[in-house]
Amino acid sequence: MILHHSSDTQAVSVIQYQRxxxxxxxxxxxxxxxxxxxxxxxxxxxxxxxxxxxxxTIWQGQRLAGVVGMSETLSGAVxxxxxxxxxxxxxxxxxxxxxxxxxxxxxxxxxxxxxxxxGDDWWLLHFAALGFTAFDEVVTLRRASMNLPEIQQxxxxxxxxxxxxxxxxxxxxxxxxxxxxxxxxxxxxxxxRMSASAMVAVLDGRLVxxxxxxxxxxxxxxxxxxxxxxxxxxxxxxxxxxxxxxxxARRSVYIITVNTQLTNTSSQRLYQRFRFARTGYDLPVWSxxx
Length: 290
Known about the structure:
This protein is an alpha+beta fold. It has 2 domains: 2-131, Gcn5-related N-acetyltransferase (GNAT) (Aminopeptidase); 139-283, Gcn5-related N-acetyltransferase (GNAT) (Aminopeptidase), CATH 3.40.630.30. The protein has 8 helices and 14 strands. The protein has helices spanning 22-30, 44-48, 91-108, 124-129, 166-176, 185-194, 236-249, 265-273, and strands at residues 2-5, 12-16, 33-37, 54-60, 63-70, 77-86, 113-117, 133-144, 157-160, 197-203, 206-216, 219-227, 255-261, 277-289. The longest helix has 18 residues, at 91-108.
């Protein structure tokens, strides 16, 4: 798909990303640029090669000016994962032009909502120009304590994740989160590959929850915790958190962070019971209805 727009200077072309563009995109990353990136467990090269990724390159004449990447549609929602523009370009103008081209593509995939997690306030003005408005916030909580939780008698077994568990883990993730907080199966698989700790919870012989955690320079990060709705309120999240904290302590890791939504008060209550506290590092989530 190639669409052109003539301006007083150079024609702007928006082209669906193809593998032959990889070198040009790599070069753009090496140049002074403006970057919005929410690729989670992926490097840009790897994410762009995913079948679930949708990306467009933006050219001014023969020069690559930018790249925009969107997630696949899940339950009507799409995340804006990547926005990369060469320094000195009119970002708002290029975004508006690109948006007019990709919106029909998103609608054709049954998307009704585009969501973006804004990590740099510089982007607020540009996303506002497209019509995005405040939707939610991602809040960060941190536990820095050598006090360990007591092991409670429980019918819940926590064990390591195995390959045959993955289809059930994907189902739990899909059922446990409402739109737009679900992850596509490819992201769930990648999260498991990148995790330092991947554990599942079993209740009455049934896998009902899981957690993925990663290490960083001075601690661990709880990247994903989910409990099937049918098992919520039965101590599954508590069992997974207890196991995680004890497991990290055996590695002398006592700092653990986690992100959740401001509107997800139940998850915040769980973390607060384990001495997690808000850090004040909150990121706005904006949304656009299409």
